[in-house]
Specification:
The chain has 228 residues and is an alpha+beta fold. It has one domain: Glucose Permease (Domain IIA) (Distorted Sandwich), CATH 2.70.70.10. Helices cover 18% and strands 26% of the residues. An eight-stranded mixed beta sheet has the order 1-2-5-12-9-8-7-10. The chain has a three-stranded antiparallel beta sheet with strand order 3-4-13, with no helix packed on it. It has a two-stranded antiparallel sheet with strand order 6-11. The longest helix has 14 residues. It is globular. The two termini are 26 Å apart.
Length: 228
């Protein structure tokens, strides 16, 4: 059985062991699905480069429908990353988003969805990068799974150490603001990986579209855990 089917089977058979990533009540909490592909004609390059203008646009979308969270992004071919040189190169720019973004106010709590241990953490302090980042390691009946939490506040990294135990539904962090989260509107980048490929405190959250199939083999859909 490949790891994707093994994960799906585990989640199906152990629903009581799946915790939350953010506080979400489907009965009352609205979700707005953001689209950052070429289909989004509301945002200009100037809007995206200016973090305040970008944040105002995101906040207005959430406020207009009284949405608690905005979501989206898994394997979305985004044009948004033109705002940062971090994702550009001469051959093929990285534009394929590999996780799910959860957009909400700075200070929004983040939780561990499984019993875990801290794999690694780092402040990836570049424009357009993750900012403070935590990676947890989970053992799901022998299946090793890693979860990444990016765009946190710096306080979230304090008191962490490698192999620190974390319990399901334990708060591990909060969303950071634009001054510390990599210069983004407040949100959480949540991503799953089967293999960390040697990375510590970081793992690419954006890839090349030409490598989509290869990337998908290591990066399962976070919606399996989120349940939105």
């Amino acid at each position: 059985m490949d790891k994707h089917r093994q994960l799906a089977r585990y989640l199906q058979d152990h629903q009581e062991e799946i915790g939350k990533v953010v506080d979400y009540n489907p009965a009352i909490d609205g979700l707005y699905t953001f689209d950052f592909t070429a289909n989004n004609t509301e945002l200009s390059v100037t809007d995206l480069i200016n973090t305040d203008r970008f944040s105002a646009w995101v906040n207005q979308k959430l406020a207009d429908g009284n949405y608690k969270y905005g979501i989206g992004g898994y394997m979305e071919h985004r044009t948004i990353y033109g705002r940062s040189e971090l994702f550009s190169n001469a051959e093929e720019p990285r534009r394929l988003h590999l996780g799910v973004d959860i957009w909400a106010a700075a200070g929004t709590p983040v939780y561990a969805p499984f019993n875990s241990k801290v794999h690694s953490f780092n402040d990836n302090n570049n424009f357009g990068d993750y900012g403070p980042t935590i990676i947890l390691e989970h053992d799901l009946d022998g299946l090793v799974l890693y979860s990444l939490y990016g765009h946190l506040n710096r306080e979230s990294l304090k008191s962490l150490y490698t192999d620190k135990p974390v319990t399901k539904n334990e708060q591990i962090a909060v969303f950071g603001n634009a001054t510390e989260n990599g210069n983004w509107p407040p949100h959480l980048h949540f991503q799953l990986m089967f293999d960390m490929e040697g990375y510590r405190g970081d793992y690419p959250g954006v890839g090349r579209f030409s490598e989509r199939e290869k990337l998908m083999s290591n990066i399962p859909d976070p919606n399996l855990v989120l349940g939105f």
